[in-house]
Amino acid sequence: MSETRTKVGQVHPADVDVVIVGAGFAGLYMLYKCRQLGLKAVVLESADGIGGTWYHNRYPGARCDIESLDYSYSFSEELQQEWHWTERYASQPEILSYIEHVADRFDLNRDIRLNTRVIGAEFDENTARWAIITENGDTLATRYFVMATGVLSAAQVPDIPGRDSFEGEWYHTGSWPHEEVDFTGKRVAVVGTGSSGTQLIPIVAESASELYVLQRTANFCMPAQNRPLDPELERDWKAHYPERRAFARSSNFGHNQLSNPLSGKEASAKERRAEFERRWELGGLYMMRAFKDIMTDADVNLDAVSYVHEQIDALVNDPATSDVLKPKDLFIGTKRLSSGTNYYETFNRGNVSLIDVAADPIKRIQGHSIELDSGRRMEVDVIIYATGFDAMSGSMLRIDPVGRKALTLSEHWSGGPRTYLGITVAGFPNMFIIAGPGSPSVFSNMVNSIEQHVEWVAAAMSYLDDHGFATLKATSEAERDWVQHVNDIAERTLYRHARKTWFYGANTPGKPVVFMPYLGGVNNYVTHIASIAENGYTGFELTPQAHPEKTERTSFSPQRTGKT
Ligand code: NAP
């Protein structure tokens, strides 16, 4: 371990078996699985509460766009039977209380260290241990290092000239304060119209005296069609949960949303239209699955674009505003679809102005004003940055682990994130990523993908112990081929025409433009990585333990502690 990188603290030879970074959905389930294996695991979490994404993104209107009954853990039948979701799509407070309930119920909190930011990690080739370095000055030695750091967790505030001199209040949606923010009577500017902005804007508009929406690129916002959860539907799901979960895992996207298996290319204009209407009524992300070729066939996709443009025209009274809100030169879905309630309708309000900052860019912030290139100035009390994240790799690069031969992750990823299967990185033995770049991740129901990754990682740890191996490391060849495969798939889709999105990392200044998620489908992915394990971890090198000894494992049976 290099002297320079180790900040402070005492390294204990084998503090724990597993260090997990992040106490969101992924970190909690990883901890649960490690305990099942009898491994001593600890979760390090920088925040002062658990929940990850759902802890930080507490902006008004924050809500999931995968149905609650799907976007939840499947590992405990009792849990899924007893938990009651109140809405079709759960709000952030409800998801957070669900996560807290899970942590209580399975007694996870005792192995979670809050307010513990990991600032570095180094692999020691002599001991085959990772040293995990925290901001508090501790260093933990561990066999396994699991990055459950989230894919959309490294919030980005744009570097607008004068930003830090702003004299009002400012917030980022991804690190929203715990106290309620009152916009009553305030002049507010929202920068950004992605998924976070489109959820927040209609709510802020209700209390702000003036709301300026600064839009740089229009995106498609589908009506969420959220509603209270239908008790009949809930009963039906609960009666068939195992089948629902199995269906999700064998589907393309890891959930139960209806995918149309028919080709839009082969459908008549009337049939296409009828399907788009149906998808609009289903709401949210359903449009992405209108036809099996909607993301590969330009004609089919553009037909959906025209349909949604029509809806925007119908919803927005002012034609000039409607025109700016309509995405141009963009295949629907190639920029992550937004899902909102009353988003387009909000622009009919007298207190809401849409500002096209592509046509007239933001020049600077000064005092209480935002000034555009044209010289136009908006006086505001509050700026909300709904400006997104250094997606998929940012949270890991902020830790920047050092692997074998002193190679840093940032050096290894200087040309863009490289992984084998989205779970491991060549040169970083025994380091695992949950739902990382190169896995279905953001193109799936995240909770489903998280469970599936955690189970794969736990099985790998178990395999190493049972067979007397010290480390598992992806080979460079396997990693190279996987990266190529991920990119080849993306190139066969319409995503290749929208390279300015966070899927490509293009929203982060200086980040290489490389498509990051795996688009081949959850079903194919699950089958593939299962076969890798079944075949004795193809594409990995397994190194024997210096003094093979079967790891002592304590037995663990999940304990119920909290109340339901
Ligand atoms: P985002 O999709 O990256 O959107 C960021 C927005 O900020 C874009 O409109 C972007 O414009 C704009 N922006 C960034 N820098 C700017 C600048 N300097 N000047 C003007 N505009 C600027 O971020 P997000 O809305 O937080 O969403 C990120 C992802 O989180 C989503 O895609 C989704 O996967 C997830 N999410 C999901 C939900 C849900 O489940 N419903 C809710 C929220 C978030 P450009 O497009 O021009 O770059």
Description:
This protein is of the alpha/beta class and about 575 residues long. The relative contact order is 0.15. The chain contains 16 helices and 19 strands. The strands form 5 sheets. Strands 1, 2, 3, 4, 5, 6 and 17 form a 7-stranded mixed beta sheet that branches. Strands 7-16-8-9-12 form a 5-stranded parallel beta sheet. The protein is globular, with a radius of gyration of 24 Å. NADP nicotinamide-adenine-dinucleotide phosphate binds near residues 152, 197 and 386. NADP nicotinamide-adenine-dinucleotide phosphate binds near residues 196, 336 and 357.
How far is it from the N-terminal to the C-terminal residue, by CA? Answer: 46 Å
Low-pLDDT runs of 5+ residues are: 1-13, 549-564
The proportion of strand residues reads: 15-25%
Largest sheet: 7 strands, mixed
Structural class: alpha/beta
Strand segment count: 19
If helices are DSSP runs of H or I spanning 4 or more residues, what is the number of helices? 16
Give average pLDDT, whole number.
94
Shape: globular
SSE layout and pairing:
Blueprint: E1 16-21, H1 25-37, E2 41-44, H2 53-56, H3 77-82, H4 92-105, E3 112-113, E4 118-124, E5 129-134, E6 139-147, E7 169-172, E8 187-191, H5 195-207, E9 210-215, E10 221-223, H6 231-239, H7 241-249, H8 269-282, H9 298-315, H10 319-325, E11 338-340, H11 343-346, E12 352-356, E13 362-366, E14 369-372, E15 377-379, E16 382-385, H12 394-399, H13 409-412, E17 431-433, H14 446-466, E18 469-474, H15 476-491, H16 522-534, E19 540-544
Parallel strand pairs: 1-2, 1-6, 2-3, 6-17, 7-16, 8-9, 8-16, 9-12, 10-11
Antiparallel strand pairs: 4-5, 5-6, 13-14, 14-15, 18-19
Helix pairs in contact: 1-14, 8-9, 14-16
